[in-house]
């Protein structure tokens, strides 16, 4: 079911009850882009720590807009032995609902937009009839403004102004407005002593209107009704009417109800996310880290800087999350599933030993046909994510004795997969652990190498040709991690590099230490109070500059437009996509224009892919304990 | 005529000849937003210098996308005594055309998008079938890459590699790829000595493909054709075919022609702008500074930092520009025209003493009807801008003796208006002068005031209540210009403020001096070489910190969400729009969420508006010399 601003309000009850009755929910989001900084392949370095990955995504992905949100609710019918699903495809847009509402600026990445366009995405539905939303802070502010307006209007017996000054009594009218306000009072006195019902004051400035409101509220707490009206020429002026108490209250009430409704409308789509959150139901997604980050960032609060705080917030908003990509990459599935991209996974789970689940659309809901794919429509993606979850959960039932055909979303069997979000393309840490500390793999075979920005992957292969098979994970134009096949080669490599001029090698441990020091220096800065910092200023700055400035002589950042020359030129080709999520941006993100050598990241990824399978061993991964 | 990616190529000749035959051209652009920083009313301070305004627009407006470009060509038919117009409405989008093309990120401002949506703007036409483009540097890079690919393919007699190393002879094959490459050579030898016509090599990495290309080019400069093919699974592999010289050359030629065409396609809409530029024709726009900035930034080169450089670039790209808003605000028009917004101007120019020009659509071109407005479609806006220009130009002819009914775009009468772009909402400098230094009005009645961010316009009115009528131009949350009615009050105000703790007053001259010093310090930084800076480091930093750190104790930047409390609360209302250009963003820009007190800027604007009429006197403005 497609939900836009046009039918949102009338659909809310349907949505609420679908969530309420469901056994579990599946979600998916479509964004206006993925990375506004480095290319996606640089954004997702194979040796990122969970902290690093979180910081990068927070920095480079959150300015994009989540503009389509898919929700699919699944309810198990025990008598019919099938799931009943209700799917919703929401178009979401931060339409400013009035002059006080936030004017959101969001970024679009042309490759992502182009990709969605090629999938038949309807941008007019987003931009013209997208459902508005407010995050919690924005909602609080708007409600405050509303209360403020209410207390300023003469609906309340005595005016209770927010401003401490004006609440005390007579309004302070600046000298130059005194004559103006006196004239207004004359006119109102006139009104009160004649037959007329109302008087139209002449157009004036916002400030003067404020003064009028305050003065009349104070002078005539009862008996007159003051409201702002707009002329055809969009000029605003004030209409003062004589009303009896009853009429005045009625008018005020109507106005307040209208405002209250507008306010609820402006909270808009956030109400759906609140309902999902409040339900406490299991929420399933595929490769859902970015979906979760965007959902919280857009509808709850700006993401915290600290990963642990993010984990806390996320667990509050979504107490139970399950990532089907992580599930499919874990024993006992990973042995059976080669390609965990959503479309491929869905296909694979239709074949033995898996069993396609029986799922039907609820009455009145359109059904999706998995044969004619509608991939990258958020509602459809949420739907097949749900299908994948059901198939995999049921497969776990076959390990029980006696085997069980249906495994519910509340089964203990799936608990080991809870709150572990797949970490895309990280070699040795399969997931971000929302309910505890993250895995810390040994990285004693890894080198941190810095070099001139002209270097390409081939130069690194040549440099380390003596060490057998290596694996390169690019960090940026001038640095990369190089994983050697044996940890005992690390010291040799470091020693050999000591007299090199063009490049520099550190062990992974040294790299981490340097980063920690930089962080400590930084934190010191922000934690100390201004005055203290001022006192320590020269000293601290000097120390910081020592630890951050590189000790070799080539620039750190590539100049866009400057072409690279290296001993061996690589052909520039694109690799097969690894993941279905906005593939377009993935592809051209990797061939980012400003990157001086798009090709290197490509072959890196290919290598990484091979390696991933070898390294993500079950020793590193918390294997579910049930079997 | 609507032009998208679908009909762009077939329309190019029509567009070129329309430009070629025209007497003058009118243009207009629609953008995805106006300001990604301060609200529009803060962006356009009434006392901006042209440099300041340019810097602000460059900083806060250039990340938006110009996504609709209107071009209307006007050709005068002397026999029929009428203009023939051809109007084009281009949808423009930076679609990445292949993996090497730039992946542009652009910002959208929800108020602007919402405004365009309310005007029936078709976003699908932009994002799905918008015409691509490249700026000149991008085009150069793509052409270079193309040449590189050509020289690497075996179309050329001898391979001439870009890479100095590989051009010398045998390819350096890294140790681990040697076996692989040897196998490839074996296969090719096999091919050459059997009946087969071609051999399909197994899929391999991009790097390996590069090695294959280089090796085979070097080993078999003639006799084999090497090409990369893609399998259904999107895997790339290499196909080696036996070909005779003629066949090989034919294939290469075809491939090159196809690539050349793709390349021209990717330059796309920029070709239209190049044609406008090359024609040297008069280009008319309404309030066109942003249009010109976006056009140059998007289709030529990133805007230079320096205003004078911008003037140079602009004069190169558009040798003759005319801004109808500036023209309408100037003698003899300003005495006759109250509202210079495009829609109002067009209406006014239909009435006496002006005469509606006779303008007809060329055959085959749809005609616009000014009665049923299609404002904010770029093609329509360009069209009525042209109408306004014709009416005003012809009006100048009535001053001649004998009066002339038709004034051509080449008439000396309109030259005084050339290359002067309207400066929106600047009190005392009506235009940016592209062909010379800008006007420098006296500002000795102006104070620069800094204060706590809780202050509102009313607080400033109160502070200066002793000085009679004042005018406030907000700079940011904690500073504003205050113009006194008499210059001799300035020193009194400065003296009075000396012992104030919460606020601080400088004369405008002092303010300018401080800014200049800051600039000099900054420039020193960037001009000095790294080593020199390193040596001077501590000294310079200390000096800079003295000149930039405020001497009072409240924070400079408002915290979003923190509410302001001031003695007098102002009602928050929106003002009448001053300008037709994306009014939506104008409106809600002014009520920007992060601004702690949206109201203050409003009343400022109102005041400014009144003042503008008083101050933009003909003494300041270069009045055309003709009358």
Description:
Chains A, B: InterPro entries: CAF1_poly(A)_ribonucleases, Nucleotide-bd_a/b_plait_sf, PARN_R3H, PolyA-riboNase_RNA-binding, R3H_dom, R3H_dom_sf, RBD_domain_sf, RNase_CAF1. Chains A, B: Residues 244-263, 551-615 are annotated as: Disordered. Chains A, B: It comes from Erpetoichthys calabaricus (Rope fish). Chains A, B: Residues 244-258 have a biased composition (Basic and acidic residues). Two copies of one chain form a homodimer. Chain A has 627 residues and is α/β, with parallel strands linked by helices. In chain A, 42% of the residues lie in helices and 15% in strands. In chain A, the strands form four sheets. In chain A, strands 1, 2, 3, 4, 9, 10 and 11 form a seven-stranded mixed β-sheet that branches. Chain A has a four-stranded antiparallel β-sheet with strand order 15-16-14-17. Chain A has a three-stranded antiparallel β-sheet with strand order 6-8-7, covered by helices on one side. In chain A, strand 7 (224-230) and strand 8 (236-242) form a beta hairpin. The longest helix of chain A has 23 residues, at 245-267. The two termini of chain A are 39 Å apart. The model of chain A is unreliable at 154-168 and 533-627 (pLDDT under 50). Chains A and B meet through strand 5, helix 4, helix 5, helix 6 and helix 7 of A and strand 5, helix 4, helix 5, helix 6 and helix 7 of B.
């Amino acid at each position: 079911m497609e939900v836009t601003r046009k039918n949102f309000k009338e659909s809310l009850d349907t949505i609420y009850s679908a969530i309420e009755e469901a056994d579990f929910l599946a979600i998916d989001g479509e964004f206006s882009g993925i990375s506004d900084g480095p290319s996606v392949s640089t954004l997702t370095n194979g040796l990122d720590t969970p902290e690093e990955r979180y910081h990068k995504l927070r920095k480079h992905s959150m300015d994009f807009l989540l503009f389509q949100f898919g929700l699919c609710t699944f309810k198990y019918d025990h008598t019919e032995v099938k799931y009943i699903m209700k799917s919703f495809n929401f178009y979401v847009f931060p339409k400013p609902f009035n002059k006080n509402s936030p004017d959101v600026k969001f970024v679009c990445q042309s490759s992502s937009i182009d990709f969605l366009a090629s999938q038949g995405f309807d941008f007019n539905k987003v931009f013209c009839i997208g459902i508005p939303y407010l995050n919690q802070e924005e909602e609080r502010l708007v409600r405050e403004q509303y209360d403020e307006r209410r207390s300023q209007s003469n609906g309340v017996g005595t005016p209770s102004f927010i401003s401490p000054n004006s609440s005390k009594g007579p309004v302070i009218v600046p000298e130059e407005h005194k004559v103006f306000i006196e004239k207004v009072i004359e006119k109102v006195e006139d009104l009160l002593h004649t037959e007329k019902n109302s008087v139209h004051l002449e157009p004036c400035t916002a400030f003067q209107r404020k003064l009028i409101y305050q003065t009349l509220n104070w002078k005539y707490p009862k008996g007159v009704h003051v409201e702002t009206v707009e002329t055809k020429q969009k000029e605003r002026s004030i209409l003062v009417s004589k009303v009896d108490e009853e009429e005045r209250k009625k008018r005020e009430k109507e106005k307040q109800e209208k405002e209250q409704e507008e306010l609820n409308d402006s909270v808009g789509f956030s109400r759906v996310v609140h309902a999902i959150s409040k339900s406490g139901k299991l929420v399933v997604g595929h490769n859902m880290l970015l979906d979760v980050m965007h959902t919280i960032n857009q509808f709850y609060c700006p993401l915290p800087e600290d990963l642990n705080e993010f984990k806390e917030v996320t667990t509050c908003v979504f107490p139970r999350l399950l990532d089907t990509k992580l599930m499919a990459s874990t024993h006992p599935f990973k042995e059976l599933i080669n390609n965990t991209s959503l479309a491929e996974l869905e296909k694979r789970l239709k074949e033995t030993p898996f069993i396609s689940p029986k799922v039907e659309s609820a009455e009145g809901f359109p059904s999706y046909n998995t044969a004619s794919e509608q991939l990258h429509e958020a509602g459809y993606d949420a739907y097949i994510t749900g299908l994948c979850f059901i198939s995999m959960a049921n497969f776990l039932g076959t390990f029980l004795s006696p085997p069980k055909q249906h495994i519910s979303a509340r089964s203990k069997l799936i608990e080991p997969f809870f709150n572990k979000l797949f970490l895309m393309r990280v070699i040795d840490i399969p997931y971000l652990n929302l309910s505890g500390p993250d895995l810390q793999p040994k990285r004693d075979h890894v080198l941190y190498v810095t070099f001139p920005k002209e270097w390409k992957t081939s130069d690194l292969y040549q440099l380390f040709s003596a060490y057998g098979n290596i694996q390169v994970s690019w960090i940026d134009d001038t640095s990369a991690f190089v994983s050697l096949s044996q940890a005992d080669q690390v010291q040799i490599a470091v020693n050999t590099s000591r007299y090199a001029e063009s490049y520099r090698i550190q062990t992974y441990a040294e790299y981490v230490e340097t980063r920690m020091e930089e962080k400590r220096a930084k934190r010191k800065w922000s934690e100390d109070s201004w005055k203290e910092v001022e006192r320590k200023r020269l000293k601290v700055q000097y120390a910081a500059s020592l630890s951050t400035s590189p000790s070799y002589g080539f620039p750190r950042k590539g100049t866009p437009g400057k072409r690279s020359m290296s001993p061996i030129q690589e052909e520039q080709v694109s690799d097969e996509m690894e993941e279905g999520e906005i593939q377009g941006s993935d592809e051209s993100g990797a061939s980012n224009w400003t990157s001086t050598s798009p090709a290197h990241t490509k072959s890196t990824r290919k290598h990484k892919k091979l390696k991933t399978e070898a390294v993500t061993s079950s020793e590193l991964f918390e294997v579910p304990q049930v079997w």
